[in-house]
Design a protein that fits this description.
The protein is of the alpha/beta class and about 270 residues long. It has 9 helices and 12 strands. The protein has a domain of about 180 residues: Metallo-dependent phosphatases (Purple Acid Phosphatase, chain A, domain 2, 4-Layer Sandwich), CATH 3.60.21. It has a 6-stranded mixed beta sheet with strand order 1-5-6-7-9-8, with no helix packed on it. Strands 4-3-2-10-11-12 form a 6-stranded mixed beta sheet. Strand 11 and strand 12 form a beta hairpin.
């Protein structure tokens, strides 16, 4: 199923150079982290998931973090509105970190050179344009000009400054994954945004779990080296969050259910 869904949603790899996005780190795990998978313009699902997260975290003492793993735009109907939501203050009592996804970079590449990067339109850009009230038409340059005119500057600035990773003790949060055998500091930004294989089938780094989106599945995927939480919200209506406590315990919440799901102790197969 994973390979079939990945093929359905595309496997294009960017050829643009690294943008030098910031890489964040912290020395201590907070009391709880909720990592949220690919939103893709699904504002209602994001709001529903945040409601569940607030209820789940009500009894937690200490730092509570939301970490969103990128791909806020494209495919779903409300990309512009998702950005507005993420520019607003986070839920009370939470800190929020928003990481870059490959779709954010595709939009920026398109604006910089629409004739060189027209693929963005086919990979969900048409829906993003519609969320800004733009009919894409069939000419990339005209679509780019219209988007530059309609997109608030604060949206564009936000897209450009999104960090590409967040490292915590025992965990790395990133959109797509890591290239095996390389420390985080040596990872190419393009891989952090785009990689599937050889990351998905491992091997991972001992003692390090990568929490990622990008590769869609019908349910969260748990391996010793990775936790994948892209559940294709724009198709399934299910936006998923991984809940990680200060002891490293992992469970899940999803926008289509009021119940959290514990991660299997040894979930090493699909």
């Amino acid at each position: 199923m994973l390979r079939a869904m990945a093929a359905l949603f595309g496997n294009r790899h960017t050829t643009s150079r690294s943008t030098g996005r910031q890489r964040l780190s912290a020395a201590v795990l907070p009391a709880v982290v909720y990592a949220i998978g690919d939103v893709h313009g699904c504002l209602d699902e994001l709001r529903r998931l945040e409601q569940l997260i607030r209820a789940d975290a009500a009894g937690v003492e200490g730092e509570k973090w939301l970490v969103l793993l990128g791909d806020y735009i494209d495919r779903g109907p409300r990309s512009a509105q998702v950005i507005d939501h993420l520019l607003a203050p986070p839920p009370e009592g939470f800190r929020r970190f928003t990481l870059a996804g490959n779709h954010e970079q595709m939009l920026l590449d398109f604006l910089a050179a629409p004739r060189r990067h027209p693929d963005w339109l086919a990979y969900g850009g048409v829906e993003t344009l519609a969320s800004y009230g733009i009919d894409a038409g069939d000419e990339p340059s005209r679509a780019a000009t219209a988007l530059e005119a309609r997109m608030p500057q604060v949206h564009l600035d936000w897209l450009r400054q999104l960090p590409v990773s967040l490292e915590l003790p025992g965990f790395v949060f990133v959109h797509a994954g890591l290239r095996p055998g390389l420390p985080l500091a040596e990872q190419d930004e393009s891989d952090l945004l785009w990689i599937r294989e050889p990351f998905l089938d491992g091997p991972g780094a001992p003692g390090l779990v990568v929490v990622h989106g990008h590769t869609p599945e019908t349910e969260p995927v748990v391996r010793p080296w990775r936790v994948g939480i892209d559940t294709a919200a724009f198709v399934t209506g299910k936006l998923t969050a991984a809940r990680i406590d200060a002891g490293g315990g992992i469970s899940f919440l999803a926008s289509d259910s009021a119940n959290s799901l514990s991660a299997p102790a040894a979930a090493e197969t699909d």
